Fold this protein.
Amino acid sequence: MVELANLYADEKDKTKIKALNQCARELLLAQSSDWNFIITNGTMVDYAKRRTKDHVGRFNKLYKQI
């Protein structure tokens, strides 16, 4: 995300700005949730892993598209 923020700091294209913002949201959702806590404590592990992978996957897909 730091790389994207530096590369597109002065971006004017509204579509690209929306994609960059969504990248940031997906990364925050992957990092800020309690997914790691859930996985570590063994409660709803499959769900937490899937959600983490989904958010990271969406981030990576957007990153490649940008």
User: Anything to note?
Assistant: The chain has a mean pLDDT of 94. Residues 2 and 45 are 29 Å apart (CA to CA). DSSP finds four helices and no strands in the chain.
